[in-house]
Design a protein that fits this description.
metal ion binding; binds iron/sulfur cluster; MoPterin_dinucl-bd_dom; Asp_de-COase-like_dom_sf; binds molybdenum atom; 719 residues; metal-binding; 7-stranded mixed beta sheet; 25 helices; alpha/beta; Rossmann fold; 6-stranded mixed beta sheet; Dimethylsulfoxide Reductase, domain 2; 4 iron, 4 sulfur cluster binding; single chain; 4 domains
Length: 719
C-alpha cells in the first residue's frame, strides 16, 4: 500500500516540489482499480519550494498515472526470432546479458561494449553507471543524452568561468531583476512555473526574448513593452556580436569590471569591429534599432535593479552552439553581470538531473566530481576511492553522436546498454540511428515502457520509476534534492542499482557495487571530494532536514548558492573572454515563396510532451491534447505551396521524410517551419535533423535543418 512522500517531479530540471499521497480509490477498503483503466495510485499535489512555489505544469500533475499504467513493462522481455518480446525470468535475463558482454569482449575487445545513459538518472545511478562501464564492462564507450542537451553551454561555461553550473545563482534572484534576456528558451512551455520568476522584468518592460517564433514566452514581451527579437534560425552568434558591438561603441561596457575580473577583453573589442548593427540586421533579419535598444536596456538594467542573460537550447543546439553560448557569456562579461549579487549569466538546464547527470562520470571524458578522465591526479583520486589500480580505468570514449554512428560498425560498439534515453526518437538523423540499433549483436534497454528504442532491444529490463526509488537529483540551480520513495514497485521490477550490482558480481568486476542509494551517495561524496562539483559536505540527513545544498559543497563548508562572487574558477580568478565569430552559415536571403524554395526547419518542445514522448504520449490527458506532430508554417509559405488548413504536408531532405498535418501560424517567420520532436514514426522530426556536430562540444545541429515542404496529395484529413 502506498504511504506517500515529499518528492520532486520526474521530468524537467526545474524539479518542482510535489507531495504524493495515496489516491482515494486505493485507500484501504476501496479495492484495487481494474488494470486496464487503472486510476492513479497516488495523488500529486504541488509543494511550496523556491523554484515552483507550489505550482506544477500539466506534465507534473499527471505524472503519477504512469506508475500503474497498463503498458508498463513489469518483467524482463526477450525478443524472439519472430521479433516478438516475451517474458523471461531475471536469472535468465542476467545470464543472457553476462553472456553477451563476455562474448563481445572476447571477440572484439572491451570497447565493443557501449553504454548510453541519461540526464534523468539520479546522481547515484549516473555515478554507478560510469563506474559500471569502466570497471565491470571495462569499456571507455560511455556517453549520454546530455550531450544533446547541455554540452555546448557546458563547454562555453568551462572555457569562460572554469566551471559549468547551469544557473550560478538561486532562481529567486531573478525575481527582482529589471531586465532578463532569454536567448532561444521557451520557458512558458518548457518550465511553466518558472515564468513567475520573470514577472518583475516582464511587468517593467525588461523581458527580451530572441526566438525565430513568437513562442508563448516571446508573446510575454508584449505585456510590459519588452522586446521580441526574431532572428533567422542559427544566426544568434551574429546577433549577440551586434548587441556587444553597441555595448562597446556606446560606452556601455563596465570597464572597471573588465579590468578587475576578466582577461582577453581587448581581443574581444577587436573581434566586434565588423558587427555594427546594420550589418547584423542584414545577417539576422533583426532590425538595427532593436539591436541597439537591447544593448541599452541590458546596460541600464545592470546599473538599476539587475540584468540577467539566460540561454536555452534554441541557441545552443547548433554546430556553433559553443561559440554562440560563448558570445552570450562575453556580452554578460562586457556588462559586468557574472559574479554580481543582483545580475548574472546562466543556461537553463533541461532534464530532471541534467545538472548532476553531467558531473559524476557518465560522460565519455569524465570521472566523478566533474573530473577529467585524462587528468592523472583525477584518475589516481578516483582509483583510490574505487580501490583499484588506476590503469584499470579506461581513457576517454566517444561523444554520443560518434558513439551512435559506431553502432554495429567494425571497431564500433556491438553490444549496447541503454539507461534512460530513447535515441530512436531523440537522436539526430534518427533513421540512421535505428539502422545502427538494428545492426547490433545485442541491445539491452532498461526502461519502464516499450519505448521506440526498447522495441528494438534484444532484451528489455524493467526498472523502478521515480516514485518507487530513493536518491538525489541536482536541479537547474546546482541544488541537490532528495527523490523519495512513495510506493513499492511492481514485483518484477528492479532498481538499476540492483541490476548493476548483480551484473558486476557476475562479471567479476573489481571494487564494490552497492544497490543501496545512500551507500552509493556516500561513495559519490568521496569520489567527488576535491573536484569541481564537490558534494563531499552533502548527506541525506541534511537534505531530509530541508537544508539547501548548492555545490560546490566541500566537507566543512556551507555550500555555494552563488558562484563567482569572489572570483571565477580559473587559477587567476579571472573569467576568460574567448573571441568568437560566425563561420559559414547560409546568409538570410529575400524570401521568394515558391514550392521549390528550401525552408529552415526548427525543432523544439510543446508544453504537454516530454522529450521523445515515451512517457507523456502514454498519459491519456496529454495525448488527447497533443496527439500528433503538427508542422507549424506561416500561412503565406503554405499558400505558396498550395497547402491549406487541415492538409497534410511532406517535409523532406536527403536524410528522410516526415508526413504530418499542418498548423498555420502567422507568428513564425516565412522562411522557417517548426516541428516538435516528441513523436515517432512518420512524424519524427529527427528523421530530418543532421548528425553534424559542434567541434568543441559534440552537440548535434538540432535547431536548423534545410528542408523542402510540399502538400501530401494522397492524404486527406480524417473526419
Ligand atoms: N514541455 C516540455 N518541457 C521540457 C522538455 C520537454 O521535452 N517538454 N524538456 C526539458 C529539456 S531536456 C530541455 S533541454 C528544456 C529545453 O527548453 P527550451 O530551450 O526552452 O526548449 P526548445 O523548445 O527546445 O527551444 C526553445 C526555443 O528555441 C527556439 N529556437 C529554435 N531555433 C532557434 C535559433 O536558431 N535561435 C533562437 N534564438 N531560438 C531558436 C524555438 O523556436 C523554441 O521556442 O526543456 C525542458 N522542459
Ligand atoms: N530534434 C530535436 N531533437 C532533440 C532535441 C531537440 O530540441 N530537437 N532535444 C534534445 C534534448 S535537449 C534532450 S535532453 C534529448 C532527450 O531525449 P531522450 O533521451 O529520448 O529523452 P526521454 O524521452 O526523456 O527518454 C528517456 C527514456 O528513459 C526512460 N526513463 C526515464 N527515467 C528513467 C530512469 O531513471 N531509468 C531508465 N532506465 N529509464 C528511464 C523513459 O521512459 C524514456 O523512454 O533529446 C534531444 N533531441
Ligand atoms: S515544470 Fe518541469 S518539474 Fe515542474 S511540473 Fe512541469 S515538468 Fe515537472
Ligand atoms: Mo535537454
Amino acid at each position: 500500500m502506498p504511504n506517500g512522500a515529499n518528492t520532486h517531479c520526474p521530468y524537467c530540471a526545474l524539479q518542482c516540489a510535489m507531495s504524493l499521497t495515496p489516491a482515494a480509490s486505493t485507500q484501504p477498503g476501496s479495492g484495487p482499480a481494474p488494470a486496464a483503466k487503472a486510476l492513479p495510485v497516488l495523488e500529486v499535489s504541488g509543494r511550496d519550494f523556491p523554484t515552483n512555489r507550489g505550482g506544477l505544469c500539466r506534465k507534473g500533475w499527471t505524472s503519477a498515472s504512469l506508475l500503474n499504467h497498463s503498458g508498463r513493462v513489469t518483467e524482463p522481455l526477450l525478443k524472439g526470432s519472430d521479433g516478438v518480446h516475451r517474458p523471461v525470468s531475471w536469472d535468465q535475463a542476467l545470464m543472457l546479458v553476462t553472456g553477451a558482454v563476455k562474448q563481445t569482449r572476447e571477440k572484439y575487445g572491451p570497447d565493443a561494449v557501449g553504454v548510453f545513459g541519461g540526464g534523468g538518472l539520479t546522481n547515484e545511478k549516473a555515478y554507478q553507471l560510469g563506474k559500471f562501464a569502466r570497471l565491470a564492462l571495462g569499456t571507455s564507450r560511455i556517453d549520454y543524452n546530455g550531450r544533446f542537451c547541455m554540452s555546448s553551454a557546458a563547454a562555453a561555461g568551462n572555457r569562460a568561468f572554469g566551471v559549468d553550473r547551469g544557473l550560478p545563482f538561486p532562481v529567486e534572484d531573478l525575481d527582482s531583476a529589471s531586465v532578463i534576456f532569454l536567448l532561444g528558451s521557451n520557458v512558458a512551455e518548457t518550465m511553466p512555473p518558472f515564468v513567475q520568476h520573470l514577472k518583475g522584468a516582464r511587468d517593467s518592460g525588461g523581458l527580451i526574448v530572441a526566438d525565430p517564433r513568437r513562442s508563448a514566452t516571446a508573446a510575454f514581451t508584449g505585456d510590459g513593452g519588452g522586446i521580441h527579437l526574431q532572428p533567422t534560425p542559427g544566426t544568434d552568434l551574429a546577433l549577440i556580436l551586434g548587441i556587444s558591438h553597441v555595448v562597446v561603441h556606446e560606452g556601455l561596457a563596465d570597464t572597471q569590471y573588465l579590468e578587475d575580473r576578466t582577461s582577453g577583453y581587448t581581443a574581444i573589442v577587436r573581434s566586434l569591429a565588423g558587427f555594427w548593427p546594420e550589418r547584423v540586421q542584414s545577417i539576422t533579419g533583426v532590425p538595427a534599432t532593436l539591436i541597439r535598444e537591447t544593448a541599452r536596456r541590458l546596460a541600464h538594467g545592470a546599473r538599476n535593479g539587475g540584468s540577467y542573460i539566460l540561454t536555452g537550447r534554441g541557441v545552443e543546439q547548433h554546430v556553433d552552439g559553443t561559440d554562440t553560448a560563448t558570445a552570450a557569456i562575453n556580452l554578460s562579461l562586457l556588462l559586468g553581470l557574472p559574479g554580481s549579487s543582483r545580475s548574472g549569466y546562466g543556461t537553463l538546464t533541461g532534464q530532471g538531473n541534467g545538472q548532476g547527470g553531467r558531473e559524476h562520470g557518465q560522460k565519455a571524458d569524465q570521472l566523478p566530481g566533474y573530473r577529467k578522465i585524462t587528468d592523472p591526479a583525477a584518475r589516481a583520486h578516483v582509483a583510490a576511492v574505487w580501490g583499484v589500480d588506476e590503469r584499470l580505468i579506461p581513457g576517454p570514449g566517444l561523444p554520443a553522436v560518434e558513439l551512435l554512428k559506431s553502432l554495429g560498425k567494425p571497431d564500433g560498439v556491438r553490444c549496447l546498454f541503454v539507461h534512460g534515453a530513447n535515441v530512436a526518437v531523440s537522436a539526430p538523423d534518427a533513421n540512421a540511428v535505428i539502422d545502427g540499433l538494428r545492426s547490433l549483436d545485442f541491445l539491452v534497454v532498461c526502461d519502464f515502457f516499450l519505448s521506440e528504442t526498447a522495441l528494438e532491444a534484444d532484451l528489455v529490463l524493467p526498472v523502478t520509476q521515480w516514485a518507487e526509488e530513493e536518491g538525489t537529483l541536482t536541479n537547474l540551480e546546482g541544488r541537490v534534492l532528495r527523490r523519495r520513495k512513495a510506493l513499492t514497485p511492481p514485483a518484477g521490477v528492479r532498481s538499476e542499482l540492483w541490476l548493476m550490482a548483480r551484473l558486476a558480481e557476475l562479471l567479476d568486476a573489481p571494487s564494490t557495487f552497492s544497490d543501496d542509494p545512500e551507500t552509493v551517495f556516500e561513495e559519490l561524496r568521496l569520489a567527488s571530494s576535491g573536484g569541481l562539483a564537490d558534494y563531499s559536505g552533502i548527506d541525506y540527513a541534511m537534505l531530509d532536514r530541508g537544508e539547501a545544498a548548492y555545490w560546490p559543497y566541500p566537507a566543512g563548508s556551507s555550500g555555494t548558492p552563488r558562484l563567482f562572487l569572489d572570483g571565477f574558477a580559473h587559477a587567476d580568478r579571472r573569467a576568460v573572454m574567448v573571441p568568437v565569430v560566425p563561420g559559414k552559415r547560409p546568409a538570410s536571403s529575400a524570401v521568394v515563396l515558391s514550392d521549390t524554395q528550401p525552408l529552415t526547419l526548427v525543432t523544439g518542445r510543446l508544453l504537454e510532451h516530454y522529450q521523445s514522448g515515451a512517457q507523456t504520449r502514454r498519459v491519456a490527458e496529454l495525448d488527447a491534447a497533443q496527439p500528433e506532430a503538427l508542422l507549424q508554417i506561416h500561412p503565406s509559405t503554405a499558400a505558396a505551396r498550395g497547402i491549406s488548413r487541415g492538409d497534410f504536408a511532406v517535409v523532406s531532405n536527403d536524410r528522410g521524410e516526415v508526413l504530418c498535418k499542418v498548423e498555420l501560424s502567422n507568428t513564425i517567420r516565412t522562411d522557417t517551419v517548426f516541428l516538435p520532436f516528441h513523436f515517432p514514426g512518420a512524424g519524427s522530426a529527427n528523421r530530418l535533423t543532421e548528425a553534424a556536430t559542434d567541434p568543441v562540444s559534440g552537440m548535434p545541429e538540432f535547431k536548423s535543418s534545410t528542408v523542402r515542404v510540399r502538400k501530401a496529395t494522397a492524404i486527406k484529413e480524417a473526419s
